[in-house]
Design brief:
The complex is a heterodimer of chains A (640) and B (258). Chain A has 16 helices and 22 strands. Chain A has helices at 40-51, 89-99, 106-125, 158-173, 241-248, 280-283, 313-319, 335-347, 367-373, 375-385, 440-463, 472-487, 494-508, 515-533, 545-569, 617-624, and strands at 22-23, 26-30, 33-36, 56-59, 76-77, 140-141, 151-152, 176-178, 181-189, 196-204, 210-214, 217-220, 253-254, 259-266, 287-289, 357-360, 394-403, 406-408, 421-423, 428-429, 592-598, 605-611. In chain B, helix 3 (132-141) packs antiparallel against helix 5. Chain B starts with a strand and ends with a strand. Classes of the chains: A alpha/beta (640), B alpha/beta (258). The interface between A and B is large, with 78 and 68 residues. The complex binds flavin-adenine dinucleotide (FAD), iron/sulfur cluster (SF4) (2 copies) and FE2/S2 (inorganic) cluster (FES).
Amino acid sequence: MTSSTSASDRHPMTGNEMSGESAGGMERHQYDVVVIGAGGAGLRSAIAAHDAGAKVAIVCKSLLGKAHTVMAEGGIAASMGNVYPEDNWEVHFRDTMRGGKMLNNWRMAQLHAQEAPERVMELEDWGALFDRTDDGLISQRDFGGHKYARLAHVGDRTGLEMIRTLQQRAVQLGIDVFMECTITDVMLDKGAGDPKVSGAFGYWRETGRFILFEAPSVILATGGIGKSFKVTSNSWEYTGDGHALAMRAGASLINMEFVQFHPTGMVWPPSVKGLLVTESVRGDGGILRNSEGKRFMFDYIPEFFKAETADTIEEADRWYDDKTNNRRPPELLPRDEVARAINSEIKAGRGTPHGGIFLDIASRRTPEFIRKRLPSMYHQFKELADVDITAEPMEIGPTCHYVMGGVEVDADTQESGVTGLYAVGECSGGMHGSNRLGGNSLGDLLVFGKRAGEAATAYTNSLGASLPKVDEADVKAAQASALAPFEVEGGENPYTIQSDLQQSMNDLVGIIRTGAELEESLTEIEAFKERAKRMVVEGHRQYNPGWHLAIDLRNMLIVSECIAKAALARQESRGGHTRDDFPGPNAEWGTKNLVVNLNAAGTGVDLHEKPLPVMPDELKKYFETPAAPPPVEPVETKES
Amino acid sequence: MAYRLKMRIWRGDKDGGALGDYDVEVSEGEVVLDAIHRVQATQAGDLAVRWNCKAGKCGSCSAEVNGKPRLMCMCRLSDFDEEETITVTPMRSFPVIRDLVTDVSFNYEKAKELPSFSPPPRDADNKRRMQQIDVERGQEFRKCIECFLCQNTCHVVRDHEENKKAFAGPRFFLRYAELDMHPLDTNDRRELAQDAAGLGMCNITKCCTEVCPEGIKITDNAIIPMKERVADKKFDPLVWLGNKIGVRNKDNEGRTEL
Ligand SMILES: Cc1cc2nc3c(=O)[nH]c(=O)nc-3n(C[C@H](O)[C@H](O)[C@H](O)COP(=O)(O)OP(=O)(O)OC[C@H]3O[C@@H](n4cnc5c(N)ncnc54)[C@H](O)[C@@H]3O)c2cc1C
Ligand code: SF4
Ligand code: SF4
Ligand code: FES
């Protein structure tokens, strides 16, 4: 069999482009900017770098178009004001900061709120087909924690629309894409002065062959870490590669104790446990009930959100049609609040037969409405659980969904502490503080993707001809380290270690944490690290998932350690971090971030506290006055 | 409840291979991909398979299950008899890389050949206006998750390697139709679809529609209307009528032919 394309400059087996020097079993490529990751963040960065004049490569572990972004459902938060003209960046900024319990990097939250609308419009310029309002504008839907209906969406498959649009744009621009290629190390020039990025090293998944990118700017856009937990909405790709790559290159991570457990994941059947049920179900009218049939969220409204949350069923139900005179239903509190409430109900013995809680939209909306607004949820439950969500309630429970923590970056450029190394999207930290609002990730990818691509290009250009050099000794070391699992004899299967780690993180560093359990988890992680040294893989280097996992597992371990360590240090409960032994937020802790680095020996994690950046007075004012008056009449109904 | 499933999984690479027999424990509610993963985790660590979302959203896990093109993550074991042996083979129309993983670069090459969306400037207030009803047709096509099962199934290229050069395949006919029906696009891709993309080679057998996991009516809603538009390009009575009675019809007006 032959591939349809000319064989000469392509890999004989995979059809991948193989141009460039290939000596010593390794190919080399030179680029101005290399983007690691082809989700929304990676694609948007690459497009920006290309537009700024850079020669840019995108590298990704899966095929193009399959990154996690494709799974996003609900929408992109942007205060375009199409449904509520009084919405603007200031309100969005305020919602974001409050959702993150004020621990966000204020500058990132500000830039995000200001720039998201134009970034969404660009998607439309590139061919995205968003759902419309009655007067033909991009429609916007309600989501937890957002004061106004603000999420641009396409049914419940917004991520697919976003990634396809960006992918088609990148293809149109002719940007080089290296698919099914995993980066294992960032290369540094450690010559004179501070270390600088000089490239990235990795392997083709198909062939196992090594590949070296020589580039002065590397943008990490590798997504999250959820695969370290047993119950998760995340895929195999989410092994925290970008987090770990950055740390090994000398950058620091911030806010790692904050992991978002989405309140609504599927709980049955076991094989889909953790699979996401979009928040849009609640935004569109769905409510939560326990096994006694009680709509329990009214019992869990925290002081912080009392003023803006309905306290009776009647008021909550009126809100969907009349936001002027009613407050939001408590089902639409930020995710951390809802997830904790569900957890408590289940613990108190009021769970469903499969250990979840009921999410009911069937009794509240017509089947036609549900199928139109939530087509992929309808499909997902029908196909995977034999449940017709237009006729019966869903069973749901919390699932590990998103990591707020990530590479510590400069707000304006997304540059990490290492010169030439940038991080954007879920693998960067700061923007979402202690808890991310739904819809704010997709906006984050676009806003900071563009900024990172531009900043990385500007930096590369500033270097002129004096480019940082790749150290050949480092290349040898990277090769040896990648191949190590083949050398071991009689060692352990990486799948077993991974599954033990997932169980341990779920049990000990999950949604509700205690000091004792976190200490236990750190001990267990040390033991996993020992076991991982003796991992063995069978077979050869060609498309060998066992080998790939063995390499990824090292990243999972270091990232897990960061989470457990930071969680143990933060003696309070805030956002995505809940300590049973320290319930409630603590004002003192509210003034600082936790920062983690790789220790000097490279074997573990060091941690220190860092004061939050100080918000300027002109932004502080949004948090002093009581909430702005409720909105006036919507310009159209939301059922468009 | 839990039972032992007999599976036959194709193992091999471009030089050939064979079905391997596996016996694996599975339980209620599981899908074929779960069984494959269990084989991988416990019996064949190097078994190559693509997947990401495990929810029918990413289109990575395409394969042929008992000869039928399917997404493995949406293929429930309860659809089969417990005694039945389930045979999983890679997609047949694409060259094998290893085991269940095929070289789908054909599709990425075809995507590059397609002229992209080209809109007019935004409205004066910097926004764009389109009616929901006008975007819905395109939205149906944009549900495509690029699983390439339709490409794998279409008889024009299945076992006809020689046709691949001149034939973009149903997934890309969908894309042509989507752009052609986009309320704002200013390009006319009809000639291109017909000639370069090989729309003419399709004889509307609808096999592609049958395997689409997204339930997109590829043939009825995209290919046939696209063929009609191509045929009617020279004289289109509807366009003529539309122009007469003032209905906006973009078929021939204001578009640049590509
Ligand atoms: C089910 C689900 C629903 C969601 N819904 C929403 C929503 O409605 N709104 C919202 O705002 N957010 C949502 N989110 C969150 C949001 O989708 C993600 O946070 C976001 O898509 C992450 O984008 P990213 O570009 O940072 O990473 P991704 O899209 O995950 O892309 C990561 C990329 O990095 C590549 N990569 C990783 N490691 C390596 C490596 N070592 N070498 C090479 N490449 C590598 C991967 O292959 C991939 O291409 C949802 C998340 C999930 C899981
Ligand atoms: S309808 Fe056309 S594109 Fe679809 S399978 Fe038949 S010949 Fe191929
Ligand atoms: S049209 Fe359907 S079958 Fe074809 S690639 Fe898209 S989703 Fe798959
Ligand atoms: S794994 Fe995504 S479609 Fe099957």
